[in-house]
Amino acid sequence: QAQVEESGGGSVQAGGSLRLSCALSGPFTTYAMAWFRQAPGKERDLVAAMTWSGGSPNYLDSVKGRFTIARGHAKNTVYLQMNSLKPEDTAVYYCAAAVIGGRPRGYDYWGQGTQVTVSP
């Protein structure tokens, strides 16, 4: 059974940094992972995504130059390094994973979310 576990959320002042971690457990092999976020009253946005086959990661315009997504050394892991955080980055951050043999488009498994709160 698949389980996506996120960690690393918390509260920080504007200008600070946080690092989110995500791991997919279970008998699966990922080929892409991503981070999404959803603020209260807003839609869920794709923050950063990458595939293992190569190519540059994709980022939400508002986080370019501040956030970095990176694949972990361990199987089925991904990180999101968030620097120069702003109050508008406050949201619940979700990790998502696409696995070989899964749906043809989109992500197959999602985490429960981790709260990131940035104070002015």
Question: What is this structure, in a nutshell?
Answer:
This protein is mainly beta and 120 residues long. It has strands spanning 3-7, 10-13, 18-25, 30-38, 45-51, 58-59, 67-71, 77-82, 91-99, 109-110, 114-119.
Sum up the structure in keywords.
mainly beta, seven-stranded mixed β-sheet, 120 residues, 0% helix, four-stranded antiparallel β-sheet, 52% strand
Give the total of beta strands: 11
SS-based class:
mainly beta
Mean pLDDT over all positions:
96
Strand content: over 45%
Distance between the termini: 41 Å
Percent of residues in helices: under 10%
SSE topology string = EEEEEEEEEEE
How is the main sheet built? 7 strands, mixed
Q: What report would you give on this structure?
A:
The protein has strands spanning 3-7, 10-13, 18-25, 30-38, 45-51, 58-59, 67-71, 77-82, 91-99, 109-110, 114-119. With 120 residues, the protein is an all-beta fold. Strands 2, 4, 5, 6, 9, 10 and 11 form a 7-stranded mixed beta sheet that branches. A 4-stranded antiparallel beta sheet has the order 1-3-8-7, with no helix packed on it. Helices cover 0% and strands 52% of the residues. The protein has no helices and 11 strands.
